[in-house]
Design brief:
Order of helices and strands: HHHHHHHHHHHHHHHHHH
Shape: globular
Radius of gyration: 23 Å
Helix content: over 70%
Strand content: under 5%
Oligomer: single chain
Distance between the termini: 30 Å
Number of strands: 0
Number of helices: 18
Length: 509
C-alpha cells in the first residue's frame, strides 16, 4: 500500500471514529431536545436552518474550497480566501438579519423571526472558520477535524442547548447551541491550523480561486434547493408542526448517511485531488467504495426502514409517531444519497467542476414541480418525492462519474445482487421479529427481536460462505479491519491481493 493510500485509510478511520462519537452525542442530545421541545418548536428552528444553510453558501462562496483543490499552496492563496470569506460573511450576516421579518412572513411563522436574526451570526462564524477547516482536510488531518466536531457539538448542544431547553428557552436553546458550536469550530480550528490573516483583495492567482469559488457556489445553490425544497414548501403550505415532524425524520434518516459521507467524502476528495493524473487508482478506489455501499450499506438502510416506526416511538415518544412512515421512506433512499455524495468528488478531481451543477439543473426543475404539487398534501408524499429525487441524482451523477473513469455499471451487478440478497435476509428477520410480538404494544421488545433476527440470518450465511461479500467489499473490510481476515477465510484474504478493475474496458453504460 502506498504512503498516500495508507494515509487515506488512516484519515478515513479517524473520520469514522469521530463521526461515530459525534453520532452518539448527537443522538442523545436530540432525543432529549425532541422530547422536551416537541415538533412545533423544532419546526420553527427548522425554518431558521433552511435560511441559514442557504445564506452560508453566499458567505462562503467556495473561496476556501479552492485551498483544498490546489496542487500547491501559498500564503497569498490563504490570505485571499480568508479576506473574501470575511467580507462576504459580514455582508451575508447583515442581509439575513435585515430580511428576517420578510422570511418569517413567507413561512407564516412570526416566531421564526428571532430565530433567523440570531442565526445570521452563524454566517460570519462559519465563513471565518472555513480556511482553517479546509487546510486541515488538505493535510488529511481528520483526527484533529474529528475532535473539533466532537468538542464543538459537546459544547454547543450538551453543555448549552440541553440545559437551556430544560429551563424553558424553547427554540432559542437550539439557536444558542448552534452558535456556540460554530464559535468553538472557529477558535479551535484556527488554534490547530493557524494561517495568515493579513487582508489580500487580489493577486496573480485570484482568477483561478474565483473560478473555483464560482463553481462551488453554483453547485451548492442547486444542491441546497434540491435538499431543502421539501422543507421550504412544507413550511409554507402546511405548518411548523408538520415541518418539525418531517425535519426530525429527515435528520434521523440522514444521520447514518452523514456518518458515511463524513468519514469517506472529505478523505476521498483530498486524496483524489492528489490523484488527478492517476485515473486508474482513482477508478479503483471509487469502484470499490460503490461496491461496498451496495453490499454492506444497503442492507443496513433496509433494516432501518423496516423498524422506523418502532424506532421513532422508542426514541421520541408517541407525539412524534407521525414521523415514522416518513422516516421509513427516507431511509430507503439514503444509499442513493451516499452514491451521489461519493460521485461528486470524481467530477471535481477530473477537471469537471461545473458538471455537478449542470447535471442537476433538470432534476431541480422536476423537483420544484413535484414538491409544489405534493408537499401541501402531507409530509408522507413529500418524503416520496424527496426519495425519488435522491435516486435520480445518484443515477445521473454516478453514471457520469463512471463514464469519466471508463467504468461500467454492469461490473457492479454482482455486488448489487449480493446487497439485495443480504437486504432480503434482513427484511425476513425484521418481519419475523415483528410477527413474534405483534400482540404486544412494546416497541422496545419488537425492535430488539427484529434486530437480533435481522443480524442473525446474514451473519450465519456469511460464516458459511464468506465469499458472498465479494471481492470489493472484502477488500474494503480487510483494508480497514485487517484483524478480520481469519473470519473471512483465506480465500477472502487472497481476493484482496488479486482485486483489479479493468478500467480500460471499452464497455460503458
Amino acid at each position: 500500500m502506498s504512503d498516500l493510500s495508507r494515509s487515506g485509510v488512516v484519515a478515513v478511520k479517524w473520520s469514522a471514529v469521530s463521526s461515530l462519537a459525534r453520532f452518539v452525542l448527537q443522538l442523545g442530545a436530540q432525543i432529549i431536545l425532541a422530547r422536551t421541545l416537541g415538533p412545533e418548536i423544532f419546526g420553527t428552528f427548522a425554518i431558521g436552518m433552511v435560511v441559514l444553510t442557504f445564506a452560508t453558501f453566499f458567505s462562503g462562496f467556495g473561496f476556501s474550497w479552492s485551498l483544498l483543490q490546489r496542487t500547491t499552496l501559498t500564503d497569498e492563496d490563504v490570505r485571499f480566501a480568508w479576506t473574501w470569506q470575511l467580507v462576504i460573511g459580514l455582508a451575508t450576516m447583515a442581509a439575513v438579519y435585515w430580511l428576517a421579518p420578510s422570511l418569517a412572513a413567507y413561512f407564516r411563522e412570526p416566531k421564526a423571526q428571532v430565530v433567523i436574526e440570531w442565526l445570521s451570526v452563524a454566517c460570519l462564524l462559519s465563513a471565518a472558520a472555513a480556511p482553517a477547516t479546509y487546510l486541515l482536510q488538505r493535510d488529511l488531518n481528520f483526527r484533529a477535524g474529528g475532535l473539533i466536531q466532537i468538542a464543538s457539538y459537546l459544547a454547543g448542544y450538551v453543555i448549552v442547548g440541553v440545559p437551556m431547553a430544560i429551563s424553558g428557552w424553547g427554540a432559542l436553546s437550539l439557536v444558542a447551541a448552534w452558535l456556540v458550536q460554530a464559535m468553538v469550530v472557529l477558535v479551535v480550528s484556527y488554534m490547530l491550523k493557524p494561517h495568515a490573516i493579513r487582508p489580500l483583495f487580489w493577486y496573480a492567482g485570484a482568477s483561478s480561486a474565483v473560478g473555483t469559488g464560482k463553481a462551488v457556489f453554483l453547485t451548492n445553490i442547486v444542491n441546497w434547493m434540491l435538499n431543502n425544497l421539501d422543507r421550504i414548501l412544507i413550511g409554507r403550505l402546511l405548518n411548523a408542526q408538520a415541518l418539525g415532524l418531517y425535519n426530525v425524520a429527515y435528520n434521523l434518516a440522514t444521520t447514518p448517511n452523514n456518518l458515511l459521507l463524513g468519514a469517506l467524502q472529505p478523505a476521498f476528495l483530498a486524496a483524489g485531488a492528489r490523484l488527478q493524473t492517476e485515473r486508474d487508482r482513482l477508478a479503483r478506489a471509487y469502484f470499490g467504495m460503490l461496491a461496498s455501499i451496495f453490499v454492506l450499506v444497503l442492507p443496513v438502510f433496509v433494516f432501518l426502514a423496516l423498524v422506523s416506526s418502532d424506532l421513532v416511538q422508542l426514541l421520541y415518544g408517541a407525539k412524534w409517531s407521525d414521523a415514522g412512515p416518513v422516516l421509513s421512506i427516507l431511509f430507503l433512499s439514503m444509499p442513493a444519497y451516499v452514491i451521489w455524495g461519493l460521485s461528486t468528488p470524481v467530477l471535481w478531481n477530473t477537471g469537471r467542476k461545473y458538471y455537478e451543477f449542470l447535471l442537476q439543473l433538470p432534476i431541480l426543475a422536476v423537483g420544484i414541480l413535484a414538491f409544489y404539487g405534493f408537499a401541501g398534501q402531507g409530509i408522507k408524499l413529500a418524503a416520496y418525492v424527496a426519495a425519488l429525487l435522491l435516486l435520480l441524482r445518484a443515477v445521473v451523477v454516478g453514471t457520469t462519474a463512471f463514464r469519466v473513469l471508463k467504468l461500467s455499471w454492469i461490473k457492479l451487478l454482482p455486488d448489487i445482487g449480493r446487497g439485495l440478497l443480504l437486504s432480503g435476509l434482513c427484511a425476513i428477520g425484521v418481519e419475523s421479529g415483528k410477527a413474534m410480538l405483534h400482540h404486544y404494544d412494546l416497541p422496545v421488545l419488537s425492535l430488539a427481536a427484529s434486530t437480533v433476527l435481522a443480524l442473525s440470518l446474514p451473519i450465519v450465511l456469511l460464516m458459511i460462505r464468506p465469499q458472498l461479500l465479494g471481492t470489493q467489499s472484502t477488500t474494503m473490510v480487510l483494508r480497514f479491519f485487517p484483524g478480520l481476515a481469519f473470519a473471512l477465510d483465506k480465500s477472502a484474504s487472497e481476493m484482496q491481493q488479486t482485486s483489479r478493475i479493468d478500467s480500460t474496458s471499452k464497455t460503458r453504460f
